[in-house]
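Quick one, probably user error.
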C-alpha cells in the first residue's frame, strides 16, 4: 500500500471505479478500515467521506459507507461529512448519510438490547443514579446540577407552552408528565384545567421543591415520587389523554424502553409527546435521532408528526448559558413531536 492517504486521494478526485477497486482489493488487509479508510487529513482532520461530500460524489460516498466508513465521523472542527454535503449543496448526500446513520443505529440498538438481556442476571445498572444522588440548585429560571450543567433552563418556556397546548387542548382531560424540572409544562397544563394531572419525578430535591411550592395541593395533581421504571406499577389499569416525557441523565435506550410502555398508557385518541433534545448539539446527529425515534415509534403503532419552531441559541447566549459548564442545545430549529396511534 503506497500511502496512508490513498483512499482519501481517490475520494477527493471523485474516481468511483478506482476507489471501489482499491477498497475491494485491500479490504482484508490488516488495519485497512481503521488506518486507511478512516484516514484523516493532517491539516483539518477531514476524512475521505468529507472529501466525497465536498465534491458531490455520491458514488464515492456510497462505496466508503459500504466499506465501513463511519457515517458520523467529524473533522477537527467538529463538522461531519453530512454537514459538508449540505453546505456544498449536495442534499442527496446528506440524505444518504442520514439514512445510513439510522440503519446503523437501529442495528446497534438491537445488538445493545440483546447484550442487556444477556447481562440481566448481574443486576441492571441505573443510568441516572449519579444524577439522582447529587444536589440540584434552583435559581429564578434555572435548574442546575452539581457539575454546573443545566438540567432545565427557562428558555424552554415557549416550547413547553406549545407542548401543553397540543397535549391538553381542552379542559377535563387526564394528563401525565414524566419529569418536572422547572415545572414549565406543568404550569401550562394547569392553565388548561385537566381533570387529573399526574406527575412522575425521580429526583428528591425536585420532589421537595414541588412540595414547597404546593404542587401536591394543585387541582387534580397527583405526584408519584421515584423513577418512572419503579412507579409504573402504580399506574396499572390507568390511561391518559395526553402524555409528556422529559427525564434527565437517561439515554436513548431508556426512552425506547419508555416508548414500549406508552402504548399501554395512551388512550386510543390520545396524544404523546416528548422533549426533543435528541442529540441537539449537532444537526446530523439530531436528524438521525429524530428519524430513528419516528421509525421505532411507528413500529409500536404510533405515527409522529413534527412541528418546526425557530430557535436562535446565539441571540441570548449569555442569558441562556452564561456560567454553565455545557450546553444541551445549539440548533436553530426545535422539532416538536406529536404522536398518535396510527389507527
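Nope, works fine. Designed sequence:
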Amino acid at each position: 500500500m503506497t500511502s496512508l492517504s490513498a483512499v482519501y486521494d481517490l475520494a477527493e478526485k471523485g474516481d468511483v471505479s478506482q476507489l471501489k477497486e482499491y477498497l475491494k482489493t485491500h479490504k482484508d488487509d490488516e488495519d485497512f478500515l481503521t488506518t486507511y479508510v478512516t484516514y484523516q487529513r493532517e491539516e483539518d482532520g477531514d476524512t475521505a467521506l468529507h472529501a466525497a461530500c465536498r465534491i458531490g460524489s455520491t458514488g464515492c460516498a456510497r462505496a466508503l459507507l459500504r466499506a465501513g466508513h463511519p457515517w458520523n465521523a467529524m473533522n477537527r472542527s467538529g463538522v461531519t461529512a453530512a454537514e459538508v454535503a449540505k453546505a456544498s449543496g449536495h442534499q442527496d448526500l446528506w440524505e444518504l448519510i442520514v439514512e445510513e446513520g439510522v440503519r446503523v443505529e437501529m442495528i446497534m440498538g438491537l445488538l445493545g438490547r440483546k447484550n442487556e438481556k444477556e447481562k440481566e442476571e448481574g443486576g441492571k445498572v441505573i443510568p441516572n443514579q449519579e444524577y439522582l444522588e447529587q444536589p440540584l440548585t434552583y435559581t429564578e429560571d434555572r435548574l442546575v446540577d452539581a457539575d454546573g450543567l443545566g438540567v432545565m433552563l427557562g428558555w424552554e418556556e415557549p416550547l413547553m407552552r406549545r407542548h401543553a397546548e397540543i397535549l391538553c387542548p381542552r379542559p377535563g382531560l387526564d394528563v401525565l408528565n414524566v419529569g418536572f424540572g422547572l415545572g414549565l409544562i406543568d404550569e401550562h397544563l394547569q392553565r388548561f384545567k385537566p381533570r387529573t394531572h399526574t406527575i412522575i419525578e425521580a429526583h428528591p430535591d425536585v420532589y421537595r421543591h414541588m412540595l414547597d411550592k404546593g404542587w401536591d395541593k394543585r387541582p387534580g395533581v397527583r405526584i408519584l415520587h421515584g423513577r418512572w421504571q419503579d412507579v409504573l406499577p402504580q399506574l396499572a389499569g390507568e390511561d391518559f389523554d395526553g402524555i409528556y416525557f422529559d427525564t434527565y441523565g437517561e439515554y436513548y435506550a431508556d426512552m425506547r424502553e419508555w416508548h414500549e410502555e406508552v402504548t399501554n398508557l395512551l388512550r386510543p385518541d390520545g396524544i404523546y409527546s416528548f422533549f426533543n433534545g435528541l442529540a441537539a448539539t449537532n444537526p446530523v446527529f439530531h436528524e438521525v435521532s429524530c428519524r430513528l425515534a419516528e421509525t421505532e415509534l411507528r413500529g409500536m403503532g404510533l405515527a409522529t408528526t413534527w412541528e418546526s419552531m425557530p430557535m436562535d441559541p446565539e441571540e441570548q447566549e449569555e442569558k441562556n448559558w452564561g456560567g454553565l459548564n455545557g450546553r444541551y442545545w445549539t440548533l436553530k430549529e426545535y422539532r416538536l413531536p406529536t404522536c398518535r396511534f396510527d389507527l
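The longest strand covers residues 266-274.
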